[in-house]
Amino acid sequence: MNLTLKIWRQKNAQDKGKLVDYKVTDISEHMSFLEMMDVLNEELVNKGDEPIAFDHDCREGICGMCSLYINGEAHGPDREITTCQLHMRTFKDGDTIYIEPFRAKAFPVIKDLVVDRMAFERIQQAGGYISINTSGNTQDANAIPISKHNADMSMDAAACIGCGACVASCKNSSAMLFVAAKVSQFALLPQGQVEAADRVLNMVKQMDDEGFGNCTNTGACEIECPKGISLDNIARMNREYMKASI
Length: 246
Description:
This protein is α+β, with helices and mostly antiparallel strands. The protein has helices at residues 33-46, 118-125, 148-158, 165-169, 176-187, 196-210, 220-224, 232-245; strands spanning 3-9, 18-24, 69-70, 73-74, 96-100, 109-111, 114-115. 34% of the residues lie in helices and 11% in strands.
């Protein structure tokens, strides 16, 4: 395939940035989207130009690093996949593809397609964990009865990889789905009950402090989420927050 790529180039956080046109030829339909980007970068390096900066790590749909905004959609036009799992057979010969970084006040652009998502890390540090008693009196987790329904829902929430697609797809740049998933995975388990009130209050406060917007109730976050995290988690977080506030 021969494609026209309109890619966001930005030298640093202070640079205004702009879309730059690139042509790529002989792209195999079997390539992943990131492999296509690798081909382009190799051509740029061979010509003495600066390659395009973009995040990637595992390339297996697990780490969430490869977050790109492709043709106006987080992770591209396919569903429940990350950018590294998007293949070029999704596109057609001669297509023009727009490639941009995730846009949010709390996700400032570092360079080109790379954004700073440390806001998610700070939200996690605010309460997304269980403090473990290491005194030797801890109870074996397998000895605590948990219903299969709650265990399954907790595992579904824990599937969140923190990529930020929910933020990028929300018109308010809300992080509610991410925070709700992290709150839910503990709220559904007895091990998470001891710190439940502090957890939800602290994580929501940190989310607000980071500058994320409020939930729009449009459901775009669930649609674009590569792991299909359910909006039910936001409802659960709201209940947990109300209970903790009272």
